[in-house]
Amino acid sequence: MTSADVTAYPFDDRADFADADRGFVGALEPCVITNAAGRVVWDNDVYGFLDADCPDTAHPSLWRQGQLVSRQGLYEVCDGIYQVRGLDLSNMTIVEGDTGVIVIDPLISAETAAAALALYRTHRGERPVTAVIYTHAHVDHFGGVHGVLDGPVPILAPHGFMESAVAENVYAGIAMSRRAMFMYGVPLEKGPAGQIGCGLGMTTSTGSIGLVAPTIDITRTGQEEVLDGVRIVFQLTPGTECPAEMNFHFPDRRALCMAENATRNLHNLVTLRGAVVRDARVWSSYLDEAAVLFGGDTDVAFASHHWPTWGSDRVVEYLSIQRDLYAYLHDQTLRLMNSGLNGAEAAEVLVMPPTLDQAWHTHGYYGSVSHNVKAIYQRYLGWFDGNPARLWQHPPVEASKRYVDCMGGVAAVIDKAVAYADAGDLRFAAELLDRVVFADPDNTAAKEHLAGVYERLAYGSENGTWRNFYLMGALELRNGITASPPDMGSVELLAALTVEQLLDAIAIRIDGPRAWHERLSVDWRFTDLGVTHRATLGNGVLTHRVIVEGGDPADLTLVLEKGQMLGVLIGAGLDQIGHEGDLEVIGRLLAVIEMPDRNFPIVTP
After folding, report:
1. Which of 117, 158, 353, 404 is the most exposed place for a label (fewest CB within 10 A)?
2. Assign residue 497 a region: left if phi > 0, alpha if psi is -120 to 50, beta otherwise?
């Protein structure tokens, strides 16, 4: 979002630069990573332009954040704990044990994770991976797991990890993936007038995504585990940055991992790509609990993004400010809501306290005060603001046609929008031009004017994800829809799901109207699991349950192993699978499964 007074920012405070460089061991040269076919999946060198002074096309505070976050290489956090930063959106942390290393959060892609581990081994030797820890269920913290595994090892994750991973990466994965292109600006040219990061990191890698299910659940705060001789004490933090998340402490090394609950920015309470709204009140309370539980016994706190904080007093101060950040947003939004303001109104008037605003790590590089306030409103009161005029509004195209008609037609609205833009009211100019584009999507003049307004809004935005959304909007208005990259992880992610999760994933793709009059049932008899699941389609709904065989037979019974199920569901054939009943039932089921358009429009109707 745009800052009103950049001159008040503490640009002379260089502590973050010292901390970001502390412990540097070595960089990856060149920092360009390719997949087996030679396609580039990560290029950090492209951000070399950030070494220059901030241009007019970027917010100085976001430029500063980009300079910090684009640093890459292997860094020593403390004795026996290292981080690889700048090889993906997130950090990979490596903890040395008695016989090998524990990998924390193996990035998004197998290729970047493998490169990160190789960089560590170049400087620290060929130590095997003896355990993996997922701090939470976002893909940048588990997707690269196949790039670090040398064989079966314990994999630890917070309770509810698989359910959370499925809900975000599978159930709503297509919509989130499309919007994530805008949020991270992956297709944008990297440069002073283009993508300069997203505040949390630079961008997302585009390699092979995988998932190996956890073998050890962390179910309570205070749970202690010993991995390869390393003692770890866990703190569960559900409902914070992820529905399933945890912090943990290394008491023998006086080091604290804060997962993604305390990073060097104001985080999202709801992401622009879409997610379940997070609980700012609970988030704040867990930060306070972490400070109480571990602060006095901690010399360094690190996270899965950005750089560490050293010194017990500094760690406690950092956690306390982060705690107050989310508590202030929560409490003041509720105060304004209870005074009668809706989400947009509350977001417009809420101002952060000067003490919080002077701390760089509270700035809205990734989340923003504006959209976080609206998220809190949404969490408590939902989408409806109570005004009956907004209870049953026309959808965007129909509403836009009527607004444009009321304002005198397309040409008149464009003229008014240009006047507002010239006067500096870019927000209303964008709203007017967006109405024209949705009322008359072939109007190239309106698209170009709107693209120009989006660029100007981007250049003034301190928030990296806002900047990327604006610039992606401009790109698609001018050039049409940018296709999503190949979905390298779908099959691997689906293969890791339980039977119940796979059937749920199919259920949400049933084309209800096409399936209204279809009636069928399929028994899935799994020889390796010793269980039978019955899936029944009726009234456009696919339901399923575990059954005890011996009752009424299904229309079709498939006899198979769990690993063969995905092949059946994607239409790969039944050659190796036993069956009883009518095989045509599978074809009828597959016929009503919708394959969504992964490249649906966002800035045009």
Report:
1. 353
2. beta
